Amino acid sequence: MVAQMTRRDMALAALTSVIWGFAFVAVKIGLESFSAPQLTAVRFLIACLPVVLVPRPAIAWGSIVLIGLTLFTGQFLLLFFAYTQGLPPGLASVIQQMQAFFTVLLAAVFLRDLPSLRQGAGMAIAFAGLALIGLTIGSDLKVAALGLALAGALSWAVGNVLVKHAADVPTFPLVVWSSLIPPVPALIVSGVSDQRSLLAAIPLASWSSIVAVVYLGALATIFAFASWGRLLQRYPAAVVTPFALLAPCTGVVASAAVFHEVFSPVRYAGMGLILCGLAVIVVHVDRSAGGPV
Questions:
Q1: Which of 60, 91, 182, 229 could form a disulfide with 44 if both were Cys (CB 3.0 to 4.6 A apart)?
Q2: Closest CA to 40 of 179, 175, 202
Q3: What compartments host this protein (predicted)?
Q4: Which of 47, 263, 59, 72 is nearest to 165 (CA)?
Q5: C-alpha span between 204 and 269 (Å, rounded)
Q6: Residues 106-112: contacts with CB within 8 Å, 24+ apart?
Q7: Where are the domains positioned within the chain?
Q8: Is 109 exposed, middle or buried (0-12, 13-18, 19+ CB in 10 A)?
Q9: pTM to 2 decimal places
């Protein structure tokens, strides 16, 4: 495994995180024409298109289903419902990063992968930030919105643990084949809760919503997950994961620029603490070199 990233791969890591950051804006645009379950379904109908060209990964169907239900269905369906409850995209991009801390906790419980002191400190800082955000619940932030976003982050964390347990499985085929799963439960939920079907919604969708959905399926799912997986296979996680900090930063800036999001000082402080906690966990300091790697 190569220890030093090439400039090209550094650019790819940064681009991938920026794509994920802008995805939080794309979600809000997509929800202008589609319901939460419909947006989930169409996103992954696009993401699973390469399945006709990509061999199924050497993993049991049950594992593919579980990963699809947690890493994709639960994460995004719950997040999209949080948007419909008024969760701002910028705040969503930060709250979703709680998955990193939930992953550490779940790995400790189920994989006996105990957190280090550094990880424990990072989690404490992040949960302090989450508590500050909780204090701002009011007219512009509902308990349901925050709860759904956190549940989505927890589902993401469960998916992370399942992927970690399925060692040596190529990321791209796993992403593509797991993308077959979300449309099924999402369309079932849509059939129960939506007055208009997905087939009826597509012709009425705005061009901006169509572009947003294609962005989510093709770039934020297929390209971004495949690129990130390739980088993690080629380099140590400590080298790649610091670039993930660009995603919430991009999400906050993009949401402020597009939707003119403005938060109270307390909420900004809470978001800042979550990002600081994430930095403590993912940025590994090489003391012999005197800097981050």
A1: 182
A2: 179
A3: Membrane
A4: 59
A5: 41
A6: 106/157, 106/158, 106/160, 106/161, 107/161, 107/164, 110/161, 111/161, 111/164, 111/165
A7: 7-292
A8: exposed
A9: 0.90
